[in-house]
Task: structure prediction
Amino acid sequence: MSSTEAKSSLLKQRFEKAEKLEKQGINLFPNTFRKKHDIIEIKEKYKSLSNEELEKVEEQSVIAGRLMAVRSFGKATFAHIQDGSDRIQIFLQQKELGADKYKFFKKLDIGDIIGVIGKPFLTKTGELTLNVSDFELVTKSLRPLPEKFHGLKDVEARYRQRYVDLIVNPKVREIFRTRTKILKLIRQYLDERGFMEVETPMMQVIPGGATAKPFETYHNALGMKLYLRIAPELYLKRLLVGGFERVYEINRNFRNEGISTQHNPEFTMLEFYMAYADYNDLFKITEDMFSYLAQEILGSQKVNYQGNEIDLTPPWNKLSFYESLEKIGGLSKDQYQDIEKAKNLVRELGENVKEYESLGKIQTKLFDLLVEPKLIQPHFIYHYPTEVSPLSRRNDKDPSITDRFELFITGREMANAFSELNDPRDQKKRFEEQVKEKAKGEEEAHFMDQDYVRALEYGMPPAAGEGIGIDRLVMLFTDSPSIREVILFPLLKPEKDK
RNA sequence: GGGUCGUUAACUCAGUAGGUAGAGUAUCGGCCUUUUAAGCCGAGAGUCGCAGGUUCGAAUCCUGCACGACCCA
Result:
């Protein structure tokens, strides 16, 4: 849809009206009006005053906002205007403004941005309202807004034209305010504990730190293929080697995979690393951080998510990976320890199995199918098989498993955490195994990263690290069923150019 | 990648024996000084997602495509 051609009659009408106003010498896009107050300030300031008290108010309120609704009578008009903070009713009278100015107001459209000067009073129904002594057109709106009562419902339009969604759907504004608040609280939480926020490359020569397919790009001047990062992990741990003992990064990761209610190709991840700590410390920090967020955001440890009440009060359930296969997945040791039996089981459950897939990989598939969807309340699942945890420290007693856990809430993975592998010799072997898997056809296997091994050879202090998916966290706290509801501009295919 | 559903006015939606489209909001004109989904009277507004096919005739039936939603892989 082009803005200059093939206009609907409604659009044409607005463009013509705009031209007419301009011919009368009215600037449709002036940048001279300066508001003095946010609407919410006005509302807070006067909310408890009676009409007698309001009459004594000397100060003029000077606000600006978008015209959202108009109820017009002959010589008086009620309207609502909305700014970034709130919405307020205004009252305009011909006898107050003069016939010409009043007539001009009646020519305005819903969607126009206006500046308003007036004093507060209470209407018959007790609504705080500004009695307008003067107003100005600040920005002309040339496109009609969606209907005032139903708002914009079409999901495709809501995502493509998020700006319209934000104008007309207050709940959507609220979700993104909450998102920002969550990010701020997380930063505050980590900063208070001595963590340093850092930025590491988004474009990497070797995409490491996760099991995922990367996006490729190309640097022209260097004549070199680059990847968008799938995780910042290996860079953050290089910083541990460098001597920063507590670091974190909150930023985008990119994974070249399918799109669903749980996945957007770019998504936001928190990763934090602390030296001289292990995964036992991370259980506590995770519980503490989530319950802190719940308290600050919702004022409660109970979160309602899509009809389920999630109780975030620590401590949370803990089960080892194998225990969970047995107790929640209902499997016997025999069923998940014999690779052929396990593979057959996965196939019976309707998922594909590739020849080269390791027992650990098959076991995680069983977990994904039989256990994960049942983990509605918070559950830590710990001691993952070493073969599916190439960056995690082995358990001291049983080297076939790692000191790693994942957190699940509402049947979804919310966090992945482990004691960090800091033995460069073991790390090198683990990379070599990944390279072998890649050669067998496992597209998502890790790449060899020689420099990372070299860094470990200098000595990385013992450490623990964790990644938390921010989008899913925001979904939980805003009761959003789809990741697209918590990403301002989710990826969509381009609309057809007519 | 597969399945199901959707796409009609700016927005929210109706629209079956297949007979060239309708409501509310919004817009335009008129009346109206306490409304808040204001009210009353009148008017204009559509490539029925796109392209084919069947038919005397298609928003409606068939095929393909595009975009989206949900589910599955």
The two ends of chain A are 6 Å apart (CA to CA). Chain A is about 35% helix and 25% strand. The first strand of chain A starts at residue 61 and ends at 72.
